[in-house]
Design goal:
Mean pLDDT: 84
Structural class: alpha/beta
Helix content: 10-25%
Order of helices and strands: HHEHEHHEEHEHEEEEHEE
Distance between the termini: 48 Å
Radius of gyration: 19 Å
C-alpha cells in the first residue's frame, strides 16, 4: 500500500485479495512504477486496466506536439484500447494501431465509431505481437508509449527496433518511454507490494493488492494482481498477472544505435529516489 509520500511498503498480507477496510489511498496510485501494462485478458479486468493507464494520459500532449512536427502517418505500437490512437485521429492524423489483444482493438474501434466516421476512417487496426513485428509501409512517427518497450523480450528487441527504423521516413521519429530502475535498489528490494482502490462508477467496489517481483538474473519482472470486487449480492475474487522485462539503459541505447537510430531528445522524471521514467525521441541516423 502507499504511505502519504507515495512510498511503497510491504503490508503483512498473505496471497489473498485485500480487505475493503484497508487505508490505502486511491489517489496515490497515480504513478505506480511498472504497473502500467496490465493486459485486459478478460472483460472484468477493464476497469483495472484503465485505472493503471489513466495516470499516464498526460503524455498525449507531448506526443501530439511531436506528431505536429513530424506529420503522419503515425504508428501506435501496443495501442491498447486507443488512449493515443483515437485522440491522434481526432486531431487529423492517420494512425495504424497495433496490439496483440483483440479485445483492446475492439474497444478502440468502438470508441472511434462513437465519435464518428471521419475519425474512424483515419484508423487502421492490426492484430500482431510486437515481438514478431512486420510492417508494410513507412511512418513519420512511431510510438512505443506506456512503457511498451518493457513488454518486448530482450532477445527480440533489436529486431523490432531495426524493423521500426527501416519503416521510418527520412525525417521521421521513434518516441518511446520506459521505467529506469536502479540495480542496487532492485537487489535490495526485489519484492514490492501495493494496495489501492480502483475508481469505478458502476456500483461495484474494487480493491487490488499488486505484488511486484523483480529478477535481476533474468532481467524480468512479474506483477500479480489480487482483486476483490464487491457487488450487490456477492464478493468476487480473481488473480491476474503481467510479465515484463527490466530495461537496461545501456543495452537499449546500443540497440538503438545498431538499428540506425540516433537520440535527438531525452527527458527524465524521477519517480522516487531510485526510479525514474525516461522519454526518448530518436531519428534515423544521417
Amino acid at each position: 500500500m502507499y504511505t502519504q509520500t507515495g512510498t511503497p511498503v510491504t503490508p503483512a498480507l498473505g496471497p489473498v485479495p485485500p480487505s475493503r477496510n484497508t487505508t490505502a489511498s486511491p489517489a496515490l496510485c497515480a504513478w505506480l512504477p511498472g504497473l502500467e501494462s496490465l493486459a485486459p485478458y478478460a472483460e472484468d479486468q477493464l476497469w483495472l486496466h484503465d485505472a493503471l493507464l489513466g495516470p499516464f494520459s498526460g503524455d498525449i500532449v507531448e506526443y501530439l506536439t511531436l506528431a505536429r512536427a513530424t506529420g503522419g502517418p503515425v504508428l501506435d505500437l501496443g495501442s491498447g484500447a486507443g488512449r493515443l490512437t483515437v485522440p491522434f485521429a481526432r486531431h487529423g492524423f492517420t494512425v495504424e494501431a497495433v496490439d496483440r489483444h483483440t479485445q483492446s482493438l475492439k474497444r478502440l474501434r468502438a470508441w472511434a465509431d462513437r465519435i464518428g466516421p471521419q475519425v474512424r476512417g483515419r484508423i487502421t487496426t492490426t492484430h500482431a505481437d510486437l515481438a514478431r513485428l512486420r510492417l508494410r509501409r513507412r511512418y513519420q512517427l512511431t510510438l512505443l508509449a506506456g512503457a511498451m518497450i518493457a513488454a518486448i523480450p530482450p532477445d527480440a528487441r533489436p529486431g523490432v527496433l531495426r524493423e521500426i527504423a527501416a519503416h521510418l521516413g527520412g525525417d521521421g521519429a521513434l518516441a518511446l518511454d520506459y521505467t529506469a530502475h536502479d540495480a542496487a535498489g532492485l537487489a535490495e528490494h526485489p519484492h514490492r507490494t501495493w494496495a489501492f482502490q480502483v475508481p469505478r462508477f458502476d456500483g461495484v467496489t474494487e480493491w487490488v493488492v499488486a505484488r511486484q517481483v523483480f529478477d535481476l538474473a533474468t532481467m524480468s519482472e512479474q506483477i500479480t494482481y489480487f482483486i476483490e470486487r464487491s457487488e450487490k449480492t456477492r464478493i468476487r475474487r480473481s488473480i491476474a498477472t503481467t510479465d515484463k522485462w527490466i530495461v537496461n539503459q545501456g543495452d537499449l541505447l546500443r540497440e538503438l544505435r545498431a538499428a540506425g537510430l540516433r537520440i535527438a531528445d531525452q527527458r527524465q522524471q524521477w519517480l522516487d529516489e531510485r526510479t525514474h521514467s525516461v522519454l526518448l525521441v530518436c531519428h534515423p541516423a544521417e
